[in-house]
Specification:
Largest interface: A-B, 17 and 17 residues
Shape of chain B: globular
CATH class of the largest domain in chain A: Alpha Beta
Order of helices and strands of chain A: HHHHEHHEEEHH
Bound molecules: iron/sulfur cluster, FE2/S2 (inorganic) cluster
Number of helices of chain A: 8
Number of domains of chain A: 2
Radius of gyration of chain A: 18 Å
Distance between the termini of chain B: 71 Å
Strand content of chain B: 15-25%
Oligomer: heterodimer
Number of strands of chain A: 4
Number of helices of chain B: 26
Helix content of chain A: 25-40%
Largest sheet of chain A: 4 strands, mixed
Distance between the termini of chain A: 38 Å
Shape of chain A: globular
Structural class of chain A: alpha+beta
CATH topology of the largest domain in chain A: Glutaredoxin
Structural class of chain B: alpha/beta
Chain lengths: 210, 812
């Protein structure tokens, strides 16, 4: 039970590059946790041990940080994490209804994962898209201005198409409505799993694929 | 900050006081008699301002504001109100908040009656709570180690335990987990709070969230009698309070003595108290008859011993008698042993060290001896000794603090990984036996040693030297000290591990020493008047005595709290020696492996059962006190020795520990002026010898100390662990199970050569002892060194000098 995760060579190389960026190893803790999530699909105990060994901390210190943040999932989640904002702006414009629509389309309540392991609905606090409320993220890719109807279609699409990568702008075009900033720069990075797409973590799909 | 005034004037509750700039307000106020309530603030740890209990009103240019006084440095002109209506309301509010989730189960809580939360709620809290909702619930106490239990419902999240483990002991195994209302203190799953210092968190936890398994539900604070004393474990001489109820010692707590332990204790010294009340304690004298030990009266036993000794002395001369031990008792007991052997028997055959120590002249006579406090001002520290974490844990904490908090450059030299490696600027390993080569390289500043060599030139420098393991000669430590002696601003601290070794040597329990650091041949007036002529023979040390017994040259052995069979680096040879003796007598607390072979076994009083003094590794003399009676008919060592001398017709005239203390102050030059009164009333931190104007007659001169020993083949690193199979450990139930057991430490390459990994079994043969044990991988080891822990349960002690071999796998 005290095993240390064996990571892919790619993950080890990414970790090394991340650590090299900081004057102190322990500063690399948070990015490394994402690499651990990418490796195992969620943050496992053995993954935290691997991170602890890499940055010369005790596992207890690593889990202290990991448990503080809700984005480090310590339980398996489905292929698609659908995060519905229910903070004030979104709530005023129907965030609760969007969440209900997502839950009923997925067939499971927020915090759970459907039987086939595809969709995990959750509700989250403000995701900084108040101007485009109600807002939703799928694998941390943003879609703004959803309606319950569009949210249902979104989940159905996820289930039917099961895309390998997800891109916010593309989903926005399919299911979104009102946006915070119509002039926002087109985002080509696509998410590859239920964790944020970020080049240094190796969690970005090659450009153009979606 | 640099142009800040040295001292500032501030006003606390209308009274103007002066304080050093930058000092925290809570501390300044306390030093001037104003107590501000607090939970997270601890004077030995960095302030964090977490609990908000210490809110006070401070006038600022923005008006009067509430500030947490534990993170508020004092500044000139500051006006502070600690008990204004607003401050009181704030403190009341904080307490009401803290109690929102507190279970108030004080009647079943170990802390009840001495709980800072309870006390401060009584003094500063609201009478009632407005909180009617459900409190948080957690599984009630969860064991987080073999010694400590955690009750998260009681925790007020002050982080004292977390900060202690991180800042002070360097093993951060408990941490905050989670966030917001579900924040809790916990360990990582399946990683117990296995720290050598975990008990300190129990002592400083301001509530009953952390409790100690050995004390749980055993006593209420108001039923305890308490006395201050000095820890019977480790040579650092930690100050403790001993708590007893109904003649049973219930616990030890650490006392903050600035020059030594600063409030902290190792778990061994905190929980080792259990041996005192152990049912295994000897209660009656016993004499061997027809091969069996039978109970006897003191009168019979003393006369029996006296007659046997007298008869041997008459037949074979006084040098046919020897004594081993004396390092586990008080200075008064050691003095009695020294006097008994010299004046009543007439020999210099006595030794407090059991073949695991250093040259006694070096230990007590080294020039420019360091004090522990020198670490606070040291620029550079060289530790070339045993792993301090295992053998001198309080010194370990102090060195760690110097390197980590005070910025000293730490150089560690040791054949294996040590507890200080993570804070060391330089770490050098070597194969045991090759130490003098490494010393030469370091002295010459060879490749890879240049930076360390330069650091050694940057005094003040403290050099801690001792034996790195039992398989290495003590001469190396002397060679290191003699090299270091020429470095600028150096002070030297030679160390050994057995509790009162320094006291026993200071009392002359060594062939070459007389009480007060007088060389055996240098006895002068007051001593000679009291003792008579001092024997002139050269005297044997422990190794010499055991060899003498085997060869028949030595006929009788007195063992005073010593267990050579378990303690010397070749137990079977020690057993052989005891078996060969014509007559052996053991004074002990327990029927140890050695005592079980003796002809007469006499029950001795131990720690907390007798009064006296002890001397720590820097020469600090401190008082130990009595709080419980000894078991059965147990007597203190000095009284047993006095009784034997009396029965031999050569009385040594000892009346009580207190009169012995006076005699020591008269005859032992370095101890002049050290009285019990002085220690009890004036020198509360202890008195360092040589005391005041007193002289230390012995001047140790290094004599070409190290003879390089070349090991061929595998080198053996035989090192002690904090928990082992020693007799105090065996009889402290909570600690007995903590001995790590046998293992073989191998370098990664060596393991690869053997085709084994961590946890695989190997068979180790040392001389004619073979055992199978799991592999530990230690990258600090040289490729041809095997590290073996000494004195583990179930394995006889090993011959450090014998050849060693390791093969993969178990017995075929
Ligand atoms: S367990 Fe005790 S010391 Fe640790 S945070 Fe909780 S209250 Fe503070
Ligand atoms: S409230 Fe939903 S994004 Fe800000
Ligand atoms: S004592 Fe000051 S905030 Fe805790």
């Amino acid at each position: 039970m005290t095993d240390i995760a064996q990571w892919s060579q790619e993950a080890e190389a990414l970790a090394e590059a991340v650590i090299a960026k900081y004057p102190q190893k322990r500063s690399a803790l948070m990015p490394l946790l994402y690499i651990a999530v990418r490796e195992d699909g969620y943050l496992t105990e053995s993954g935290m041990r691997r991170v602890a060994a890499l940055v010369d901390l005790e596992p207890a210190q690593v889990s202290s940080v990991a448990t503080f943040y809700s984005m480090y999932k310590r339980q398996p989640v489905g292929k698609y994490l659908v995060s519905v904002c229910t903070s004030i702006s979104c709530w005023l414009l129907g965030g609760d209804e969007v969440l209900e629509a997502v839950e009923s389309a997925a067939g499971v309540p927020a915090g759970a994962t459907d039987e086939s392991g595809v969709v995990s609905p959750e509700h989250v606090e403000c995701i900084g898209a108040c101007g485009g409320a109600p807002a939703v993220q799928v694998n941390y890719e943003l879609i703004e201005g959803l309606t319950p109807q569009k949210a249902t279609e979104l989940v159905e699409w996820l289930n039917a198409a099961q895309p390998e990568t997800l891109n916010g702008d593309e989903m926005q075009a399919l299911f979104g409505g009102q946006r915070s900033f119509d002039w926002a720069i087109h985002e080509t990075d696509s998410a590859t799993g239920p964790y944020p797409a970020f080049q240094p973590h190796g969690t970005v799909a090659p450009q153009g694929r979606s | 900050m640099s142009d800040a005034p040295e001292s500032v004037k501030i006003t606390i509750n209308g009274v103007e006081i002066e304080a050093p700039a930058g000092e925290m307000l809570i501390k300044v106020a306390e030093e001037h008699g104003t107590y501000i309530p607090r939970f997270c603030w601890h004077p030995r740890m960095k302030p964090v301002g977490l609990c908000r209990m210490c809110l006070v009103e401070v006038e600022t240019p923005r008006g009067v504001v509430l500030v947490p006084s534990c993170v508020q440095p004092v500044a000139d002109g500051m006006i502070v109100e600690t008990a204004s209506p607003v401050a009181l309301k704030a403190q009341e509010g904080v307490l009401e908040f803290l109690l929102v989730n507190h279970p108030l189960d004080c009647p079943v809580c170990d802390r009840g009656g001495e709980c800072p939360l309870q006390d401060q709620v009584m003094s500063y809290g609201p009478g009632e709570s407005r909180f009617v909702e459900e409190k948080r619930h957690y599984e009630k106490p969860v064991p987080i180690s073999d010694l400590v239990l955690l009750d998260r419902e009681r925790c007020i999240l002050c982080a004292r335990c977390v900060r202690f483990s991180d800042e002070i002991s360097g093993d951060p195994l408990i941490e905050f987990q989670g966030r917001g209302n579900t924040t809790e203190i916990f360990t990582f799953p399946n990683e117990p709070f296995a720290s050598y210092f975990s008990g300190n968190t129990v002592q400083i936890c301001p509530v009953g969230a952390l409790t100690a398994a050995p004390y749980r539900f055993r006593a209420r604070p108001w039923d305890l009698q308490t006395i201050e004393s000095t820890s019977p474990f480790h040579t650092e001489g930690s100050r403790i309070t001993v708590h007893a109820s109904q003649n049973q010692v219930m616990r030890f707590l650490g006392v903050d003595n600035g020059p030594t332990n600063q409030g902290w204790l190792s778990d061994k010294e905190r929980f080792g108290f259990e041996f005192i009340g152990s049912p295994g304690r000897l209660r009656t004298p016993m004499i061997r008859e027809n091969g069996e030990l039978r109970e006897a009266s003191w009168g019979e036993a003393l006369i029996f011993v006296a007659e046997r000794l007298k008869e041997i002395i008459e037949r074979s001369g006084p040098d046919a008698v020897g004594a081993i031990g004396g390092a586990q008792g008080t200075n008064e007991d050691a003095y009695a042993l020294s006097k008994f052997m010299r004046a009543a028997v007439g020999t210099n055959n006595l030794d407090a060290q059991l073949d695991d120590g250093l040259n006694p002249d070096f230990l007590v006579g080294v020039g420019s001896r360091a004090r522990i406090d020198d670490l606070e001002t040291a620029n550079t520290i060289l530790v070339w000794s045993a792993d301090l974490k295992e053998e001198n844990p309080i010194l370990y904490l102090r060195v760690r603090r110097a390197a980590q908090e005070l910025g000293a450059t730490l150089i560690v030299v040791h054949p294996a990984r040590t507890g200080l490696d993570d804070v060391a600027a330089h770490k050098f390993g070597y194969r045991p036996g090759d130490g003098s080569d490494l010393l030469a390289d370091l002295a010459a500043g060879k490749d890879g040693f240049a930076a360390a060599r330069d650091a050694l030139q940057e005094g003040p420098l403290v050099v801690i030297v001792g034996r790195t393991g039992l398989a290495e000669s003590g001469g190396l430590a002397e060679a290191v000290a003699s090299f270091a002696g020429d470095l600028p601003g150096v002070s030297i601290m030679p160390i050994v591990r057995r509790a009162n070794t320094f006291g026993a040597l200071d009392m002359g329990v060594a062939p070459s020493l007389l009480p007060g650091r007088i060389p055996a041949r240098g006895a002068e007036a007051p001593l000679v008047e009291l003792w008579g002529a001092i024997p002139v023979s050269r005297g044997l040390d422990t190794v010499g005595m055991l060899a003498g017994l085997r060869s028949g040259e030595l006929k009788a052995l007195i063992m005073v709290g010593a267990d050579p069979v378990r303690d010397v680096a070749s137990g079977s040879r020690a057993a052989e020696a005891i078996g060969a003796a014509e007559f052996t007598v053991a004074f002990d607390l327990f029927l140890t492996d050695s005592a079980a072979m003796a002809d007469v076994v006499l029950p001795a009083e131990g720690f907390a059962e007798k009064e006296g003094t002890v001397t720590n590794l820097e020469g600090r003399v401190q008082k130990v006190n009595r709080i419980v009676p000894g078991p059965g008919q147990a007597r203190p060592d000095w009284s047993i020795l006095d009784g034997i001398a009396e029965a031999m017709g050569s009385p040594i005239g000892l009346q009580s520990a207190e009169t012995i203390a006076k005699e020591i102050a008269t005859v032992a030059t370095a101890y002049e002026g050290i009285t019990w009164d002085l220690l009890e009333w004036e020198a509360r931190e202890g008195a360092v010898v040589p005391h005041g104007d007193a002289q230390q007659p012995l001047e140790y001169v290094a004599v070409n100390a190290e003879q390089p020993q070349q090991t061929k083949g595998l080198g053996l690193h035989l090192a002690r662990t904090l928990y082992d199979d020693g007799s105090a450990m065996r009889h402290s139930l909570s600690l007995a199970k903590l001995a790590p057991g046998m293992s073989a430490g191998l370098s990664p390459d060596h393991a690869a050569d053997l085709g084994v990994e961590a946890g695989n079994q190997v068979t180790v043969s040392i001389g004619n002892v073979s055992f199978t044990c799991p592999v530990r991988i230690d990258p600090s080891l040289s490729n041809r060194t095997v590290a073996i822990p000494f004195n583990q349960p179930g394995i006889e002690t090993l011959d450090a000098a014998a050849p060693i071999s390791v093969v993969a796998g178990g017995p075929s």
